[in-house]
Amino acid sequence: MKSRECNRVFALFVAFVLSSGVVSLAVAASVSSFFAPTKPNKAAPPGHSPPGMVWIPGGEFSMGSEDPTTDAVCGGHEPMRDSRPIHRVYVDGFWMDKTEVTNEQFEKFIKATGYRTIAEIAPTQEEFPTAPKENLVAGSTVFTPTPKAVPLQNMFQWWRYQHGADWRHPEGPNSNLKGRENYPVVQVAFPDAEAYAQWAGKRLPTEAEWEFAARGGRTGAAYAWGNELKPGGKWMANIYEGKFPVKDTGDDRFVGIAPVAQFPPNKYGLYDVAGNVWEWCSDWYRADYYAQIAKQGKGVVRNPQGPDTPWDPAEPNEKKRVHRGGSFLCTDQYCTRYMVGTRGKGEATTAANHLGFRCVQSPRH
């Protein structure tokens, strides 16, 4: 990881410009000028917290991410253009699950409703008219390490469609949930997450709610805990160490997925808002959504619900929803979306073994 080196470079840069006079002070200030102060609401929570949830006060904040590839941020190799321009947003207060929904919690939903997830239902010829019949079997996508280093332009080198992979069998039919009751449920598509949330009397967070909560009241920090990836040499999230996608060395104590709440919570009491598993948000994903907001010139956008239609220029025909938080597969070699202002995306009916969710609940007035 290069976080320590980058922080040192940034400190030297700031020291240099500050020693150069008034003009350089302006330059130094511009490094973080896109982020105006976060202004959390000060009203008390409206009653006692629902079980397993914490109060997120809401308020006004700057949403988005600076370019992580610059020396000022030093967060990886991707510029994250879909996370800019940084813009002001206001969200009302809400309750949020402390952790991602666990296998134990999801199993209660399944037993109560008899629900079958998308990964458990075989696709039909009508849905995929050109697919061979032998491929129309229930399953889902599973990460598979490569035997040696490979170029990172083609993700299909380390992802496979696995027959029999579902929430009960995250890596395929030979895997199970024994001893994983407190792990985040994975292999859930967007409609599956929505169905659980409705059953629980909750909903999925908007992207704006998710980022406000994940920031924990901080202004413009790169990570949910601050601006250094490993403060004091301490790992703060379950991400990928080692050579991607060959071997996760588990320097953060976990190779692959981890149980929930194994790292310190953020200032609002939320666990795992970086790494471990991606989390579904309710918004459609549009690569140009932030640019659209900026063009409208509304100043502070209140309680945004996301765009009306999805659009990913890489796959314009796919209907994608927003993912947030990154996963145990994120690394500065390939994906640094454990950075709090960055965005992910996924086709709404596609699940994977690094993708889960958590819920929110609006206060009842």
Detail the topology: elements first, then pairings:
Layout: H1 3-18, H2 22-30, E1 39-40, E2 53-56, E3 59-63, E4 87-91, E5 94-97, H3 103-113, E6 139-143, E7 159-163, H4 190-199, H5 207-215, E8 278-284, H6 289-296, E9 301-302, E10 320-324, E11 344-347, E12 355-356, E13 360-361
Parallel strand pairs: 4-9, 8-12
Antiparallel strand pairs: 1-3, 2-5, 3-4, 5-13, 6-7, 8-10, 10-11
**Class based on secondary structure composition and strand pairing:** alpha+beta
Major β-sheet strand ordering: 1-3-4-9
Helix content: 10-25%
**CATH architecture identity of the largest domain:** Alpha-Beta Complex
H/E topology pattern: HHEEEEEHEEHHEHEEEEE
Shape: globular
Beta-strand residue fraction: 5-15%
* Radius of gyration using CA atoms only: 21 Å
Q: Find the CATH topology of the largest domain.
A: paralog of FGE (formylglycine-generating enzyme)
List segments where confidence is low: pLDDT < 50 over at least 5 consecutive residues.
1-33
As for the number of domains, it is 2
Distance between the termini: 47 Å
CATH secondary-structure class of the largest domain: Alpha Beta
- Strand segment tally: 13
CATH superfamily of the largest domain: paralog of FGE (formylglycine-generating enzyme)
Question: Total helix count?
Answer: 6
Q: Provide the residue-averaged pLDDT.
A: 89
Main sheet, how many strands, which sense, barrel? 4 strands, mixed
